[in-house]
Structure formats: C-alpha cells, structure tokens
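HUMAN: Mind making up another protein with tokenized structure?

ASSISTANT:
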Amino acid sequence: MTFAVLMGWVMSRVILGILFYLAITPIALILRLTKKDLLDMRLDPSAPSYWKHRTPDPASRTHCERQF
C-alpha cells in the first residue's frame, strides 16, 4: 500500500510536469512573441483610473431564478 501511495505521488508530479512543459509553456511563449496581454495589465500613465465602468444588469425575478 505504501508503494502505491509513493508511486501515485511521483507519477502525478511527472504527469503534471510534462503537461506544463508541453502545453502551458508553448502557449506562454506564443503569447509573449505576439505581445498579447490577455489580462489587460499594461500600465497607462495618462489614464485617470483603471476602473472599468459596467452597466448594471436589470434586476428582475427571472434573473434571480435558477442561478446554477
């Protein structure tokens, strides 16, 4: 039983490491090369505020029903 727990611990890290280097790293490199900013984190010194104004959703009974 101890061997199975140890193998599960090791293999999960190996699989997640492979997934990270084969999937997430190339995506990050492509986004950096194309200078994409998916989170809109660029600083604009001339901006008075970084607050994003949103229009409020109309409150209605159907909006509150079946939320999930």
Notes: The CA atoms of residues 38 and 67 lie 28 Å apart. The first helix runs from residue 2 to 33. The chain has a mean pLDDT of 89. The chain has two helices and no strands.
